């Protein structure tokens, strides 16, 4: 029997139960899909993350061309964060109801249209509006890809390949300063070119329609034959890579699929506790990291360094971004995920304290490298842990209501960091960095209360939590 769905050709023979479909997927020890899937997801992710920070490099020129006060320059960043929260939730609801592929495609369209429209904006108001749309797409993309990678990856390698997707993502962070330096200072239209580069993620739309749908999502929506065909194709490719047959599957727990609006499922046991715990963790993490990402150059300039020196510090220390993401891919499944995240956050905290107390060039270079590496080490693992914490029926919505809404912390971060900076006079620099360290530390303290899901089938995690809640 041949099924054609969304350009993906699938062949099926004997019928498997839903439990067997997932058990067969979760025993595969290698990435069982074409490498092109990683490239499509990765490049889209890279350019979405490129769009997160590119506006900061264009703003110094934008506010001059549009005759905007420095006080108003933060409005596009705030608009993007608000768009992130709304877009993550709306698109994740779509992804939970209509499919992970639909969620990824619609998110890519949003941030591509937003970036192109920002690039051609000739009015401050419209620029802010289109940055809001871009933010919607970025938030939507992160939630949709987190759910997709969590569900597509076999249990033994889920952390590793979530990490690989984020190698692309955080490379987007590292690339922005180089593209900005090549365009913005040398051309009056340079800031517009910077946004056009971010829109190149739209090119992935030509291939994203051909990637497989999540078999877990298909099972949750009673499309068993299609889910079986996706896993059968995955088995065949895995056996070709391995050069031998896969072992017989151990039949694992099945997931009970409830038919209700995704968000409503999140406000019932056992998920309501996870929802608020992860929301608190994300808020405190964003209170810390958005202060560093957004205000580090400002604080360093006020400490006596020139703006060019501050940018060079961030360019050099940005080498840590891909290093941390590669470490996450390598170690993501070696240890219990939540404790690996705690380790990464603690390195982050120590780095902030070091810069705050001894802001010499040598310390800034060394601690800044570890800050960049720590950030991109624990973020992919925290994305994975967040997606693992919710059932298939509401997984994308769960990511949106924790990571997405958690960006409230990102919006408050510069306000609170600047308040700490201004309140302590000569010690303001140190206290601003201590504020970043303390908020990050609170996130680390909360993390051990999360679930243990490393190398476990998502269905087993769901069953264990359901039994605990009913008990």
From TrEMBL:
GO cellular component: plasma membrane
Keywords noted in UniProt: Membrane, Transmembrane, Transmembrane helix, Transport
Record has DNA damage as a keyword: no
Domain of life: Bacteria
Signal sequence annotation: none
Coiled coil: none
TM helices/strands, residue ranges: 30-50, 70-90, 102-122, 128-149, 161-183, 189-207, 271-291, 311-332, 339-358, 364-385, 405-426, 432-453
Localization annotation: Cell membrane
MF term (GO), any: carboxylic acid transmembrane transporter activity
InterPro entries given in the database record: MFS_dom, MFS_sugar_transport-like, MFS_trans_sf, Sugar_transporter_CS
Pfam assignment, any one: Sugar_tr
All copies of domain Major facilitator superfamily (MFS) profile, residue ranges: 37-455
Bilayer disposition of the protein: Multi-pass membrane protein
Name of this chain's protein: MFS transporter
The species this protein was found in: Sulfobacillus benefaciens
């Amino acid at each position: 029997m041949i099924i054609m769905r969304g350009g993906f050709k699938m062949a099926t023979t004997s019928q498997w139960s839903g439990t067997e479909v997932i058990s067969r997927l979760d025993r595969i020890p290698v990435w069982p899909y074409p490498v092109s899937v990683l490239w499509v997801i990765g490049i889209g992710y890279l350019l979405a993350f490129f769009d997160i920070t590119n506006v900061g490099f264009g703003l110094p020129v934008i506010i001059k061309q549009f005759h905007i006060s420095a006080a108003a320059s933060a409005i596009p960043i705030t608009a993007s964060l608000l768009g992130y929260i709304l877009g993550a939730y709306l698109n994740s609801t779509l992804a939970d109801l209509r499919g992970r592929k639909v969620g990824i495609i619609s998110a890519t369209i949003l941030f591509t249209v937003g970036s192109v429209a920002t690039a051609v904006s000739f009015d401050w108001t419209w620029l802010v509006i289109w940055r809001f749309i871009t933010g919607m797409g970025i938030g939507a993309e992160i939630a949709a890809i987190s759910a997709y990678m969590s569900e597509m990856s076999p249990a033994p390698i889920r952390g590793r390949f979530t990490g690989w997707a984020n190698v692309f993502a955080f490379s987007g962070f590292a690339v922005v300063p180089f593209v900005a330096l090549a365009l913005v200072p040398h051309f009056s239209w340079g800031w517009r070119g910077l946004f056009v580069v971010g829109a190149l993620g739209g090119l992935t739309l030509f291939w994203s329609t051909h990637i497989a749908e999540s078999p877990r999502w298909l099972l949750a929506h009673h499309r068993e034959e299609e889910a079986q065909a996706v896993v059968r194709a995955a088995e065949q490719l895995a056996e070709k890579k391995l050069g031998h047959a896969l072992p017989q599957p151990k039949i694992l727990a099945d997931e009970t699929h409830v038919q209700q609006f995704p968000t409503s499922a999140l406000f019932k046991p056992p998920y309501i506790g996870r929802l608020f715990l992860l929301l608190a963790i994300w808020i405190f993490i964003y209170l810390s990291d958005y202060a560093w990402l957004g205000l580090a150059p400002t604080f360093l300039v006020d400490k006596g360094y020139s703006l060019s020196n501050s940018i060079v510090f961030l360019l050099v220390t940005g080498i840590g971004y891909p290093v941390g993401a590669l470490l996450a891919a390598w170690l993501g499944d070696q240890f219990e995920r939540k404790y690996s995240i705690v380790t990464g956050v603690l390195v982050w905290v120590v780095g902030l304290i070091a810069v705050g107390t001894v802001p010499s060039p040598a310390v800034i270079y060394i601690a800044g490298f570890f800050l960049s590496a720590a950030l991109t080490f624990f973020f992919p693992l925290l994305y994975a842990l967040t997606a693992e914490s919710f059932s298939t029926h509401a997984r994308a919505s769960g990511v949106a209501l924790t990571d997405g809404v958690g960006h409230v912390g990102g919006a408050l971060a510069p306000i609170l960091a600047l308040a700490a900076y201004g309140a302590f006079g000569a010690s303001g620099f140190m206290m601003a960095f201590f504020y970043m360290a303390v908020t990050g530390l609170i996130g680390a303290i909360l993390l051990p209360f999360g679930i243990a899901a490393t190398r476990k089938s998502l269905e087993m995690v769901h069953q264990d939590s359901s039994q605990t809640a009913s008990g």
